Amino acid sequence: MTWMRWLGTVVAMLYGSLSQVVWSEAVDSRDCYLDGWRSALKCSRLTVGEGVTKVDLAVMVAPAVNEVGRAPLYLLAGGPGQAASDLAPLLNLFDRINRERAIVLVDRRGVGRSQPLDCGWKLDPPDDLEVFSAQLADCYLQQKDFANSLSSRQEVDDLERVRQYLGHTKIALWGVSWGSRTALLYQQWYPESLNSLVLDAVAPIEVKVFLAATAAEQALRKLERDCSGDPACARLGDWRADLDQLLQDWDNDTRRFPDPYTGVLTGEPVPRWILLNIIRGALYLPETAAQLPYAIKQAGSGNYRPLAAIEGVLRGNNMSLGLTFSVACAEELSRTSDEEVASDSADTFLGTAYVALFERGCRVWPVAERPYPQPESRSHPVLLISGEADPITPPVYADTHLDYLTDKQHLVVAGGGHSNSARGCIPELIERFLKAPETSLDPGCVEEIQRPPFMVDKFGPELGAQRGEAGGQMEIGGRGSDPG
Q: By CB neighbour count within 10 A (0-12 exposed, 13-18 middle, 19+ buried), where does 339 fall?
Protein backbone atom coordinates (compact mmCIF):
# COMPACT_ATOMS: atom_id res chain seq x y z
CA MET A 1 0.00 0.00 0.00
CA THR A 2 1.35 3.42 -0.91
CA TRP A 3 0.27 6.92 0.07
CA MET A 4 2.42 8.77 -2.45
CA ARG A 5 -0.24 8.16 -5.10
CA TRP A 6 -2.35 10.95 -3.64
CA LEU A 7 0.29 13.26 -2.15
CA GLY A 8 1.26 15.05 -5.34
CA THR A 9 -1.19 17.75 -5.81
CA VAL A 10 -0.99 14.45 -10.46
CA VAL A 11 0.94 18.49 -14.52
CA ALA A 12 2.30 30.35 -19.33
CA MET A 13 2.69 32.25 -22.24
CA LEU A 14 2.81 35.13 -24.83
CA TYR A 15 3.64 38.22 -26.85
CA GLY A 16 6.00 35.62 -28.32
CA SER A 17 6.13 37.18 -31.75
CA LEU A 18 7.69 40.32 -30.29
CA SER A 19 10.71 38.60 -28.77
CA GLN A 20 13.70 36.87 -30.28
CA VAL A 21 15.08 33.54 -29.17
CA VAL A 22 18.86 33.83 -29.11
CA TRP A 23 20.86 30.72 -28.22
CA SER A 24 23.89 31.52 -26.12
CA GLU A 25 27.16 30.21 -27.49
CA ALA A 26 28.05 29.24 -23.93
CA VAL A 27 25.43 26.51 -23.83
CA ASP A 28 27.10 23.12 -24.04
CA SER A 29 24.24 20.76 -24.80
CA ARG A 30 23.95 17.18 -25.95
CA ASP A 31 21.15 15.00 -27.25
CA CYS A 32 19.19 13.11 -24.64
CA TYR A 33 15.82 11.41 -24.30
CA LEU A 34 13.06 11.37 -21.69
CA ASP A 35 10.37 8.76 -21.20
CA GLY A 36 7.16 9.75 -22.92
CA TRP A 37 8.64 11.87 -25.72
CA ARG A 38 9.83 10.45 -29.01
CA SER A 39 12.36 13.08 -30.11
CA ALA A 40 15.79 14.03 -28.88
CA LEU A 41 16.08 16.92 -26.46
CA LYS A 42 19.01 19.25 -26.04
CA CYS A 43 20.25 18.73 -22.49
CA SER A 44 22.80 20.62 -20.46
CA ARG A 45 23.87 21.32 -16.89
CA LEU A 46 23.97 24.68 -15.14
CA THR A 47 25.85 24.85 -11.84
CA VAL A 48 24.07 26.88 -9.16
CA GLY A 49 24.79 27.44 -5.50
CA GLU A 50 27.98 26.67 -3.64
CA GLY A 51 29.20 24.37 -0.90
CA VAL A 52 26.53 21.96 0.33
CA THR A 53 23.89 23.80 -1.72
CA LYS A 54 25.78 23.42 -5.01
CA VAL A 55 23.74 21.58 -7.66
CA ASP A 56 24.14 20.96 -11.37
CA LEU A 57 20.67 21.81 -12.61
CA ALA A 58 19.31 19.55 -15.34
CA VAL A 59 18.13 21.74 -18.23
CA MET A 60 16.23 20.02 -21.06
CA VAL A 61 15.07 21.79 -24.22
CA ALA A 62 12.81 20.63 -27.05
CA PRO A 63 14.00 22.98 -29.82
CA ALA A 64 11.41 24.63 -32.03
CA VAL A 65 10.83 22.67 -35.23
CA ASN A 66 10.69 25.94 -37.19
CA GLU A 67 12.53 28.74 -35.45
CA VAL A 68 10.58 31.95 -36.10
CA GLY A 69 11.59 33.94 -33.03
CA ARG A 70 8.74 33.11 -30.66
CA ALA A 71 9.36 33.19 -26.93
CA PRO A 72 10.15 29.73 -25.50
CA LEU A 73 7.69 28.05 -23.15
CA TYR A 74 8.96 26.82 -19.77
CA LEU A 75 6.99 24.01 -18.10
CA LEU A 76 6.77 24.18 -14.29
CA ALA A 77 5.87 21.01 -12.39
CA GLY A 78 3.65 20.69 -9.33
CA GLY A 79 3.95 19.14 -5.91
CA PRO A 80 6.05 20.79 -4.63
CA GLY A 81 8.41 17.91 -5.28
CA GLN A 82 7.67 16.81 -8.84
CA ALA A 83 10.39 17.04 -11.47
CA ALA A 84 9.82 18.96 -14.70
CA SER A 85 11.41 16.03 -16.53
CA ASP A 86 8.34 14.00 -15.53
CA LEU A 87 6.27 16.34 -17.70
CA ALA A 88 7.88 15.08 -20.92
CA PRO A 89 4.65 13.30 -22.05
CA LEU A 90 3.00 16.74 -22.24
CA LEU A 91 5.24 17.51 -25.20
CA ASN A 92 3.00 15.23 -27.25
CA LEU A 93 0.01 17.43 -26.46
CA PHE A 94 2.00 20.62 -27.03
CA ASP A 95 3.57 19.46 -30.30
CA ARG A 96 1.84 22.23 -32.28
CA ILE A 97 3.22 24.78 -29.84
CA ASN A 98 6.66 23.22 -30.24
CA ARG A 99 6.58 23.79 -34.01
CA GLU A 100 7.35 27.47 -33.57
CA ARG A 101 8.81 27.80 -30.08
CA ALA A 102 11.20 25.87 -27.91
CA ILE A 103 9.84 24.15 -24.80
CA VAL A 104 12.10 24.09 -21.76
CA LEU A 105 12.06 21.80 -18.71
CA VAL A 106 14.24 22.50 -15.68
CA ASP A 107 14.49 20.10 -12.75
CA ARG A 108 14.69 22.41 -9.74
CA ARG A 109 17.23 21.73 -7.00
CA GLY A 110 16.25 18.72 -4.91
CA VAL A 111 14.16 16.85 -7.51
CA GLY A 112 14.51 14.65 -10.56
CA ARG A 113 17.93 14.91 -12.16
CA SER A 114 19.03 17.82 -9.95
CA GLN A 115 20.23 16.07 -6.78
CA PRO A 116 16.86 14.79 -5.54
CA LEU A 117 16.21 15.03 -1.82
CA ASP A 118 13.98 11.97 -1.70
CA CYS A 119 15.07 10.66 1.72
CA GLY A 120 15.72 7.22 0.25
CA TRP A 121 12.05 6.63 -0.60
CA LYS A 122 12.39 5.64 -4.22
CA LEU A 123 9.22 3.57 -3.97
CA ASP A 124 6.86 4.03 -1.04
CA PRO A 125 7.27 5.61 2.39
CA PRO A 126 5.86 3.61 5.33
CA ASP A 127 2.15 3.86 6.12
CA ASP A 128 2.86 3.96 9.86
CA LEU A 129 3.12 7.66 10.69
CA GLU A 130 5.39 7.09 13.69
CA VAL A 131 7.88 5.17 11.54
CA PHE A 132 7.56 7.74 8.78
CA SER A 133 8.25 10.64 11.17
CA ALA A 134 11.33 8.93 12.56
CA GLN A 135 12.75 8.28 9.08
CA LEU A 136 11.95 11.82 7.98
CA ALA A 137 13.75 13.23 11.03
CA ASP A 138 16.85 11.17 10.19
CA CYS A 139 16.74 12.44 6.61
CA TYR A 140 16.59 16.05 7.78
CA LEU A 141 19.52 15.67 10.17
CA GLN A 142 21.65 14.07 7.46
CA GLN A 143 21.07 16.91 4.96
CA LYS A 144 19.99 19.80 7.15
CA ASP A 145 21.85 22.56 5.30
CA PHE A 146 20.61 21.43 1.90
CA ALA A 147 17.06 21.05 3.21
CA ASN A 148 17.10 24.59 4.62
CA SER A 149 18.37 26.04 1.36
CA LEU A 150 15.43 24.86 -0.76
CA SER A 151 12.63 27.36 -1.38
CA SER A 152 10.38 28.88 -4.02
CA ARG A 153 12.56 32.00 -4.10
CA GLN A 154 15.55 29.84 -4.90
CA GLU A 155 13.67 28.02 -7.66
CA VAL A 156 12.53 31.28 -9.25
CA ASP A 157 16.05 32.74 -9.08
CA ASP A 158 17.41 29.57 -10.69
CA LEU A 159 14.84 29.81 -13.49
CA GLU A 160 16.03 33.34 -14.18
CA ARG A 161 19.61 32.06 -14.34
CA VAL A 162 18.51 29.39 -16.82
CA ARG A 163 16.79 32.02 -18.95
CA GLN A 164 20.01 34.00 -19.10
CA TYR A 165 22.09 30.86 -19.62
CA LEU A 166 20.02 29.85 -22.64
CA GLY A 167 20.06 33.39 -24.01
CA HIS A 168 16.27 33.83 -24.02
CA THR A 169 15.19 37.46 -24.11
CA LYS A 170 11.75 36.82 -22.63
CA ILE A 171 9.92 33.62 -21.77
CA ALA A 172 6.41 32.27 -21.33
CA LEU A 173 5.47 30.01 -18.43
CA TRP A 174 3.05 27.10 -18.14
CA GLY A 175 2.60 25.97 -14.53
CA VAL A 176 0.39 23.26 -13.07
CA SER A 177 -0.77 23.14 -9.45
CA TRP A 178 2.21 24.19 -7.32
CA GLY A 179 3.91 25.10 -10.60
CA SER A 180 1.25 27.79 -11.04
CA ARG A 181 2.34 29.23 -7.68
CA THR A 182 5.95 29.23 -8.92
CA ALA A 183 4.89 30.98 -12.12
CA LEU A 184 3.04 33.67 -10.17
CA LEU A 185 6.09 34.26 -7.98
CA TYR A 186 8.33 34.51 -11.06
CA GLN A 187 5.88 37.08 -12.43
CA GLN A 188 6.23 39.07 -9.20
CA TRP A 189 10.01 38.94 -8.98
CA TYR A 190 11.08 39.02 -12.64
CA PRO A 191 8.28 40.77 -14.55
CA GLU A 192 10.65 42.16 -17.19
CA SER A 193 11.71 38.63 -18.19
CA LEU A 194 8.19 37.40 -18.80
CA ASN A 195 5.75 37.59 -21.69
CA SER A 196 2.76 35.64 -20.43
CA LEU A 197 1.51 32.75 -18.34
CA VAL A 198 -0.77 29.74 -18.55
CA LEU A 199 -1.83 28.54 -15.09
CA ASP A 200 -3.52 25.15 -14.79
CA ALA A 201 -5.05 24.15 -11.41
CA VAL A 202 -4.34 27.58 -9.99
CA ALA A 203 -2.67 27.91 -6.59
CA PRO A 204 -2.68 31.68 -5.89
CA ILE A 205 0.07 33.13 -3.74
CA GLU A 206 -2.34 34.07 -0.95
CA VAL A 207 -4.23 30.76 -0.78
CA LYS A 208 -3.22 28.08 1.71
CA VAL A 209 -3.73 25.14 -0.62
CA PHE A 210 -2.79 22.49 1.94
CA LEU A 211 -6.12 23.28 3.59
CA ALA A 212 -7.78 20.91 1.15
CA ALA A 213 -10.61 19.22 3.07
CA THR A 214 -13.35 21.67 2.04
CA ALA A 215 -12.30 21.56 -1.62
CA ALA A 216 -12.28 17.76 -1.54
CA GLU A 217 -15.74 17.69 0.04
CA GLN A 218 -17.08 20.04 -2.64
CA ALA A 219 -15.60 17.82 -5.36
CA LEU A 220 -17.24 14.75 -3.81
CA ARG A 221 -20.59 16.52 -3.63
CA LYS A 222 -20.24 17.53 -7.27
CA LEU A 223 -19.65 13.86 -8.05
CA GLU A 224 -22.82 13.00 -6.12
CA ARG A 225 -24.88 15.48 -8.13
CA ASP A 226 -23.51 14.28 -11.46
CA CYS A 227 -24.11 10.65 -10.49
CA SER A 228 -27.70 11.33 -9.43
CA GLY A 229 -28.32 13.02 -12.78
CA ASP A 230 -27.04 10.00 -14.69
CA PRO A 231 -29.70 7.27 -15.00
CA ALA A 232 -27.24 4.37 -14.82
CA CYS A 233 -25.22 5.78 -11.89
CA ALA A 234 -28.35 6.83 -10.01
CA ARG A 235 -29.42 3.19 -9.83
CA LEU A 236 -26.48 2.54 -7.50
CA GLY A 237 -28.42 4.26 -4.75
CA ASP A 238 -27.05 6.32 -1.85
CA TRP A 239 -23.36 5.48 -2.12
CA ARG A 240 -22.43 8.57 -0.10
CA ALA A 241 -24.25 7.10 2.88
CA ASP A 242 -22.31 3.90 2.29
CA LEU A 243 -19.08 5.89 2.37
CA ASP A 244 -20.00 7.62 5.63
CA GLN A 245 -20.85 4.27 7.20
CA LEU A 246 -17.67 2.68 5.87
CA LEU A 247 -15.55 5.43 7.40
CA GLN A 248 -17.40 5.24 10.70
CA ASP A 249 -16.92 1.48 11.00
CA TRP A 250 -13.38 1.29 9.63
CA ASP A 251 -11.04 -0.77 11.79
CA ASN A 252 -7.37 0.03 11.22
CA ASP A 253 -6.30 -3.37 12.54
CA THR A 254 -8.38 -5.68 10.37
CA ARG A 255 -9.27 -4.05 7.04
CA ARG A 256 -7.06 -5.22 4.19
CA PHE A 257 -7.09 -4.56 0.46
CA PRO A 258 -6.32 -7.14 -2.20
CA ASP A 259 -3.31 -6.36 -4.35
CA PRO A 260 -4.67 -4.43 -7.37
CA TYR A 261 -2.62 -6.54 -9.77
CA THR A 262 -2.85 -10.06 -8.30
CA GLY A 263 -6.05 -9.94 -6.24
CA VAL A 264 -4.21 -11.50 -3.28
CA LEU A 265 -4.92 -9.97 0.13
CA THR A 266 -2.04 -7.84 1.36
CA GLY A 267 -0.44 -8.58 4.68
CA GLU A 268 -0.76 -5.10 6.15
CA PRO A 269 -4.10 -3.54 7.18
CA VAL A 270 -5.13 -0.25 5.59
CA PRO A 271 -5.16 2.66 8.08
CA ARG A 272 -8.22 4.89 7.99
CA TRP A 273 -6.16 7.94 6.97
CA ILE A 274 -4.88 6.03 3.95
CA LEU A 275 -8.42 5.09 2.94
CA LEU A 276 -9.51 8.72 3.20
CA ASN A 277 -6.67 9.86 0.98
CA ILE A 278 -7.38 7.14 -1.60
CA ILE A 279 -10.88 8.61 -1.89
CA ARG A 280 -9.42 12.09 -2.13
CA GLY A 281 -6.81 10.99 -4.66
CA ALA A 282 -9.45 9.39 -6.86
CA LEU A 283 -11.15 12.78 -7.19
CA TYR A 284 -8.07 14.22 -8.94
CA LEU A 285 -8.89 12.41 -12.20
CA PRO A 286 -12.36 12.27 -13.78
CA GLU A 287 -11.53 8.72 -14.92
CA THR A 288 -11.02 7.44 -11.36
CA ALA A 289 -13.74 9.67 -9.91
CA ALA A 290 -16.20 8.01 -12.30
CA GLN A 291 -15.38 4.67 -10.66
CA LEU A 292 -15.84 5.85 -7.07
CA PRO A 293 -19.62 5.44 -6.63
CA TYR A 294 -19.52 1.79 -7.69
CA ALA A 295 -16.28 1.09 -5.77
CA ILE A 296 -17.67 2.61 -2.58
CA LYS A 297 -20.95 0.73 -2.95
CA GLN A 298 -19.02 -2.51 -3.26
CA ALA A 299 -16.72 -1.67 -0.34
CA GLY A 300 -19.77 -1.10 1.82
CA SER A 301 -20.68 -4.74 1.15
CA GLY A 302 -17.17 -5.95 2.00
CA ASN A 303 -15.79 -6.18 -1.55
CA TYR A 304 -12.68 -4.00 -1.66
CA ARG A 305 -11.48 -5.11 -5.09
CA PRO A 306 -12.88 -2.12 -7.06
CA LEU A 307 -11.45 0.33 -4.52
CA ALA A 308 -8.11 -1.50 -4.65
CA ALA A 309 -8.18 -1.21 -8.44
CA ILE A 310 -8.51 2.57 -8.13
CA GLU A 311 -5.61 2.55 -5.67
CA GLY A 312 -3.57 0.66 -8.27
CA VAL A 313 -4.31 3.28 -10.95
CA LEU A 314 -3.12 6.05 -8.63
CA ARG A 315 -0.07 4.17 -7.41
CA GLY A 316 3.35 5.65 -7.97
CA ASN A 317 5.93 7.84 -6.26
CA ASN A 318 7.45 10.56 -8.40
CA MET A 319 7.90 13.08 -5.61
CA SER A 320 11.06 14.13 -3.80
CA LEU A 321 9.64 14.26 -0.29
CA GLY A 322 12.52 16.19 1.24
CA LEU A 323 11.92 19.05 -1.17
CA THR A 324 8.18 18.74 -0.54
CA PHE A 325 8.60 19.28 3.18
CA SER A 326 11.24 22.01 2.82
CA VAL A 327 8.83 24.12 0.78
CA ALA A 328 5.53 23.09 2.37
CA CYS A 329 6.72 23.58 5.94
CA ALA A 330 8.40 26.94 5.30
CA GLU A 331 5.82 28.47 2.97
CA GLU A 332 2.46 26.84 3.74
CA LEU A 333 2.23 25.15 7.14
CA SER A 334 4.13 28.00 8.81
CA ARG A 335 1.28 30.41 7.98
CA THR A 336 -1.58 27.97 8.70
CA SER A 337 -3.25 28.16 12.12
CA ASP A 338 -4.97 25.42 14.11
CA GLU A 339 -8.21 27.39 13.85
CA GLU A 340 -7.97 27.38 10.05
CA VAL A 341 -7.36 23.63 10.00
CA ALA A 342 -10.38 23.05 12.23
CA SER A 343 -12.59 25.28 10.09
CA ASP A 344 -11.47 23.70 6.83
CA SER A 345 -11.89 20.12 8.05
CA ALA A 346 -15.30 20.54 9.75
CA ASP A 347 -18.18 18.62 8.16
CA THR A 348 -16.00 16.99 5.49
CA PHE A 349 -15.30 13.35 4.72
CA LEU A 350 -11.54 14.01 4.71
CA GLY A 351 -11.22 15.83 8.01
CA THR A 352 -7.55 16.38 8.87
CA ALA A 353 -6.27 13.22 7.14
CA TYR A 354 -4.36 15.22 4.51
CA VAL A 355 -3.01 18.21 6.41
CA ALA A 356 -2.14 16.11 9.50
CA LEU A 357 0.61 14.33 7.56
CA PHE A 358 2.31 17.66 6.91
CA GLU A 359 1.73 18.94 10.42
CA ARG A 360 3.45 15.84 11.78
CA GLY A 361 6.24 15.96 9.21
CA CYS A 362 6.99 19.65 9.80
CA ARG A 363 7.65 18.94 13.48
CA VAL A 364 10.74 16.97 12.48
CA TRP A 365 11.62 19.13 9.45
CA PRO A 366 12.25 22.50 11.19
CA VAL A 367 13.04 24.79 8.26
CA ALA A 368 12.76 28.55 8.75
CA GLU A 369 9.53 30.31 7.82
CA ARG A 370 9.59 31.96 4.39
CA PRO A 371 6.69 34.42 4.02
CA TYR A 372 5.65 35.76 0.63
CA PRO A 373 5.46 39.49 -0.12
CA GLN A 374 2.10 41.04 -0.91
CA PRO A 375 1.47 40.57 -4.65
CA GLU A 376 1.75 43.67 -6.83
CA SER A 377 -0.35 44.43 -9.90
CA ARG A 378 0.89 42.78 -13.11
CA SER A 379 -0.33 43.27 -16.69
CA HIS A 380 1.04 40.16 -18.43
CA PRO A 381 -1.60 38.20 -20.36
CA VAL A 382 -2.66 35.19 -18.26
CA LEU A 383 -4.74 32.14 -19.20
CA LEU A 384 -6.28 30.38 -16.20
CA ILE A 385 -7.55 26.79 -16.45
CA SER A 386 -9.62 25.14 -13.72
CA GLY A 387 -11.54 21.91 -13.21
CA GLU A 388 -15.03 22.34 -11.81
CA ALA A 389 -14.51 19.32 -9.52
CA ASP A 390 -10.87 19.91 -8.58
CA PRO A 391 -10.39 18.59 -5.00
CA ILE A 392 -7.51 20.93 -4.09
CA THR A 393 -7.47 24.02 -6.37
CA PRO A 394 -11.13 24.70 -7.23
CA PRO A 395 -12.14 27.43 -9.72
CA VAL A 396 -13.06 29.83 -6.93
CA TYR A 397 -9.36 30.26 -6.18
CA ALA A 398 -8.72 31.69 -9.64
CA ASP A 399 -11.94 33.73 -9.55
CA THR A 400 -11.45 35.42 -6.18
CA HIS A 401 -7.73 35.67 -5.41
CA LEU A 402 -6.08 37.15 -8.50
CA ASP A 403 -7.32 40.72 -8.62
CA TYR A 404 -3.74 41.91 -9.15
CA LEU A 405 -3.72 40.27 -12.61
CA THR A 406 -5.20 42.88 -14.93
CA ASP A 407 -5.28 40.82 -18.16
CA LYS A 408 -6.65 37.34 -17.55
CA GLN A 409 -9.01 34.78 -19.08
CA HIS A 410 -10.45 31.81 -17.20
CA LEU A 411 -11.50 28.47 -18.70
CA VAL A 412 -13.49 26.11 -16.44
CA VAL A 413 -13.89 22.47 -17.45
CA ALA A 414 -17.22 21.00 -16.30
CA GLY A 415 -16.57 17.94 -14.14
CA GLY A 416 -12.83 18.48 -14.59
CA GLY A 417 -10.44 17.38 -11.88
CA HIS A 418 -6.95 18.55 -11.03
CA SER A 419 -5.08 19.66 -14.19
CA ASN A 420 -6.96 20.00 -17.47
CA SER A 421 -4.37 21.10 -20.03
CA ALA A 422 -4.58 17.67 -21.66
CA ARG A 423 -8.35 17.55 -22.03
CA GLY A 424 -10.39 18.01 -25.17
CA CYS A 425 -9.60 21.23 -27.02
CA ILE A 426 -7.57 22.80 -24.19
CA PRO A 427 -4.16 22.22 -25.89
CA GLU A 428 -5.47 23.98 -29.01
CA LEU A 429 -6.75 26.91 -26.93
CA ILE A 430 -3.39 27.22 -25.20
CA GLU A 431 -1.72 27.41 -28.62
CA ARG A 432 -4.18 30.11 -29.74
CA PHE A 433 -3.54 32.07 -26.57
CA LEU A 434 0.20 31.95 -27.19
CA LYS A 435 -0.18 33.32 -30.68
CA ALA A 436 -2.71 36.04 -29.87
CA PRO A 437 -2.96 36.75 -26.14
CA GLU A 438 -4.77 40.03 -26.76
CA THR A 439 -7.72 38.13 -28.29
CA SER A 440 -10.42 36.59 -26.11
CA LEU A 441 -10.71 32.84 -26.59
CA ASP A 442 -13.98 31.26 -27.64
CA PRO A 443 -14.73 28.74 -24.84
CA GLY A 444 -17.42 26.92 -26.80
CA CYS A 445 -15.40 23.75 -27.27
CA VAL A 446 -14.64 23.63 -23.53
CA GLU A 447 -18.36 23.26 -22.85
CA GLU A 448 -18.31 20.02 -24.85
CA ILE A 449 -15.85 18.34 -22.47
CA GLN A 450 -17.72 16.01 -20.13
CA ARG A 451 -17.01 13.45 -17.45
CA PRO A 452 -16.18 9.93 -18.60
CA PRO A 453 -19.12 7.52 -18.21
CA PHE A 454 -19.69 6.21 -14.69
CA MET A 455 -18.71 2.68 -13.81
CA VAL A 456 -21.91 0.92 -12.74
CA ASP A 457 -20.93 -2.74 -12.46
CA LYS A 458 -17.89 -5.00 -12.64
CA PHE A 459 -17.86 -4.76 -16.44
CA GLY A 460 -17.57 -0.98 -16.40
CA PRO A 461 -19.96 1.72 -17.65
CA GLU A 462 -23.34 1.10 -19.17
CA LEU A 463 -23.00 1.52 -22.93
CA GLY A 464 -25.23 1.29 -25.98
CA ALA A 465 -28.27 2.97 -27.45
CA GLN A 466 -30.20 3.12 -24.17
CA ARG A 467 -27.38 5.05 -22.52
CA GLY A 468 -27.09 7.35 -25.53
CA GLU A 469 -30.80 8.18 -25.38
CA ALA A 470 -30.39 8.98 -21.69
CA GLY A 471 -27.72 11.58 -22.43
CA GLY A 472 -24.76 9.43 -21.47
CA GLN A 473 -21.43 11.18 -21.13
CA MET A 474 -18.42 10.25 -23.19
CA GLU A 475 -14.99 11.77 -22.83
CA ILE A 476 -14.10 14.15 -25.66
CA GLY A 477 -10.33 13.93 -25.52
CA GLY A 478 -7.91 11.17 -24.63
CA ARG A 479 -7.09 10.15 -21.11
CA GLY A 480 -6.10 13.21 -19.15
CA SER A 481 -2.87 13.56 -17.23
CA ASP A 482 -2.35 14.88 -13.71
CA PRO A 483 1.29 16.02 -13.48
CA GLY A 484 0.97 18.06 -10.27
A: exposed
Identify which of 10, 385, 370, 85 has the alpha carbon closest to the alpha carbon of residue 205: 370
Distance CA(147)–CA(265), nearest Å, equals 38
Do strands 103-107 and 73-76 pair parallel, antiparallel, or not at all (unpaired)?
Answer: parallel
For the chain, first and last CA: distance in Å? 21
Distance (Å, whole) CA 118 – CA 142: 12
DSSP lists the bridge partners of residue 168 as 21
pLDDT at 2: 43
Pairing mode, if any, of strands 194-200 and 408-413? unpaired
With a CB cutoff of 8 Å and minimum separation 6, the contacts of 229 are none
pTM of the model: 0.89
Q: Which residues of 103-141 are buried (b: 16+ CB within 10 A; e: fewer)?
A: bbbbbbbbbbbbbbbbbebeeebbbebeebbebbeebbe
Are 342 and 310 within 8 A, CB to CB?
Answer: no
pLDDT tens sequence across 122-136: 666 777 888 889 999
What values do phi and psi take at 104, rounded to 5? -120, 135
The Cα–Cα gap between 112 and 302 comes to: 40
Instruction: Answer whether 266's CB lies under 8 Å from 317's CB.
Output: no
CB 170 within 8 A of CB 345: no
Give me the residues paired with residue 60 across strands. Answer: 43, 105
CA–CA separation, 154 and 117 (whole Å): 15
| Cβ atoms 194, 258 nearer than 8 A | no
Rg (C-alpha) for the chain, rounded Å, is 22
Given CA atoms 245, 248, 251, 255 in this order, what sign does their dihedral have?
A: positive
- What lies within 8 Å, CB to CB, of 262 at 6+ separation is none
Q: Are 21 and 166 in contact (CB under 8 A)?
A: no
Q: Helix, strand, or coil here: 197?
A: strand
Q: What pLDDT, in 10s, does the model give residues 318-335?
A: 789 999 999 999 999 999
> Among the listed ranges 335-349, 383-397, 446-460, which one has the minimum average pLDDT value?
446-460
Report the distance separating Cα 155 and Cα 31, nearest Å.
Answer: 25
Q: Which of 12-21, 48-57, 259-268, 294-303 has the lowest mean pLDDT?
A: 12-21
CB-based contacts of 343, cutoff 8 Å, min separation 6: none
151 touches 370 (CB < 8 A): yes
Residue 204 neighbours by CB distance under 10 Å: 22
